[in-house]
Amino acid sequence: MRRHSAHLAHDPAVLPWLGANFWSRTGGPLMWRHYDPATVREELAALRTHGLTMTRSFFYWPDFHPEPHRVDEALCRHFADFLDAHTEAGMATVPTFLVGHMSGENWDPAWRGGRDLYEDVWMVGRQAWFVSQMTRRFKDHPAVTGWLISNEMPGYGRVYQVDPPSSDVVTAWAGIMCDAVRAAGGTQPLSLGDGAWGIEVTGRDNGFSLRETAEYVDFVGPHVYRSDTDRVRQHQRAAFECELAAVTGAPVVLEEFGLSTDTVSDENAAVYYRQTLHNSLLGGATGWIAWNNTDYDDLWDRAPYDHHPFEMHFGITDGTGAAKPPLREMAAFAEVLGAVDFPRCRRAEADAALVVPAFLERGYPYSRPADRPLIFTSLHQGYVAARAADLPTALTREADGLPGRAALYLLPATRQLTARTRRELAARAEEGATVYLSFCSGEHPVTRGPWFDGLDGLFGVELQLSYGVAEPIEDDVLEMTFTADFGPLSAGDVLRFPVAGNADSRAYLPVVPRGARVAAVDAHGRPALLVNDTGRGRTVLATYPLEHMAARTARVNPEDTHRLYAALAEVAGARRSVRVDSPYVGADVLVHEDGRRFVWLVSQSAEELTLRPATGGTLHDLATGERAEDVTLAPFGVRVLELR
């Protein structure tokens, strides 16, 4: 299966986008009132010296649009100089129009008067007018490399989930704003700046649908700041959200990511940036914009920093302009992008597919939004396990009819499938695929158990559930003992899984084989893994919610699901072109258009590791070309090598 790798291609001089969201340290959001051309040039030089090619910039809406029918011309002159400074530095910028939300505070133009930003016709008209005015002024400047309509509009237009607007309303608003840019002559790539926080990525319906707004935008821009209880999941959170954000096929730019160095050590700040940059690249991102360029120590007595003081220190440079560890990580990343000629690379194809249930993104009648967090977290944990197994996976969406063909389909802790998908998976198994599903009862008591038909026939079992009653898992650790060889796993091998979940989801599926063979049992002798041969392929059922249990466990990774996935890959014949004998290191491959192949090795170990990857060729250092048999990875380190 082809994995998403779409690139922007409009401006080779500054592509791929690698940059920072930019407010000058002279004023933060109020920088245009206190604009200092010399300081701005100094700040840009610090970024350019470390390999950054661009910034994301902001028209602070209350200042630039002080009256309904007037734009502040003095501030526009400041912005024109800001653009000139980018050209002088060999950089470009992506201006953001409607900036009424930033860093923990909302700011309205004085004349808004509480009008709704989406449904008040006059207010929508004033927004479109402002967008068109700013586009006309700056569309021909060579430093403008793209446009963004807003900054995190779901947190400004109507605050997060309090009375969210409908998708129809948001899509109409988005169309009007984007049409204003195009009508005013803006030809550069355009997106919304909403953070990609809508239903296709997060499962939360905030009105912003990537599918519905796809006709208006040229790229998608996730903003990723969520936290986790497991460090490996945290390191791969941005990558997973980028995978989900690729739903429409548009290029994915990691538009905001970062951290306040008030909340972590310098060493761990560097680790997070390193992991996020490289893992999101492997997750399909083709642009990166850190939050943000500098610290604001001198602005401690101004909003938003007086009440959100940690927001002062999200910078990749400090308050004097000196590089912080995150900027040094971005510089190292820039060198790798150059060494592999990244704009001409794509991700290697995958033989395994992670199935995204339609219930994540569709509000079927009487389905429950409470199901969606379980779907997201189980998929995320399955994604992490596949990385630990060195198993490249493509995401295939049930809502799209499972496009593409894979040797292995993974349905981690999947409770809900449509009738059409259940039949399609059965057909693909008949044709030769391996279809794996781990049972999950769900996290609420309504319609406990599988929400699809014919589990028995699909997996060759007879389920023994009692109506409405979950079968509780009483052990604290599931011991899955293999009774027969299964890929590289031999009879007698034991996999151990943490048990977790609430009263509804901490449940297993009692079954009796009816055609399936038992591959593994639990500590009580009950079937834990069953294989049902069908046609040229097979279905595989885990009777425990393995990925859900891990997702609800802190500091769990790597856990043994990666061993099961590696075995499934071998049984299915799914290729793993690079394999590492450590679950702490994930391996993946990018392919250059000239045929060269590059291997990424990403460590999740806090200790230095030395290992010998198994490949179908030889590995070579990017700089020297020397052969590398044994590869040493620093703690949480990354190595990129050429595979010949």
Task: Report what the structure shows.
The structure is a single chain. This protein has 644 residues and is an alpha/beta fold. The protein folds into 3 domains: 12-343, Glycosidases (TIM Barrel), CATH 3.20.20.80; 352-572, Rossmann fold (3-Layer(aba) Sandwich), CATH 3.40.50.880; 578-643, Immunoglobulin-like (Sandwich), CATH 2.60.40.1180. Strands 14-13-15-16-23-22-21-18-19 form a 9-stranded mixed β-sheet, sandwiched between helices. Strands 7-6-3-2-1-11-9 form a 7-stranded parallel β-sheet. The protein has a 5-stranded antiparallel β-sheet with strand order 12-25-26-31-29, covered by helices on one side. Strand 6, helix 5 (167-183) and strand 7 (190-191) form a beta-alpha-beta unit. Helix 4 (121-138) packs parallel to helix 5 (167-183). The longest helix is centred in the N-terminal third of the chain and has 18 residues, at 121-138.
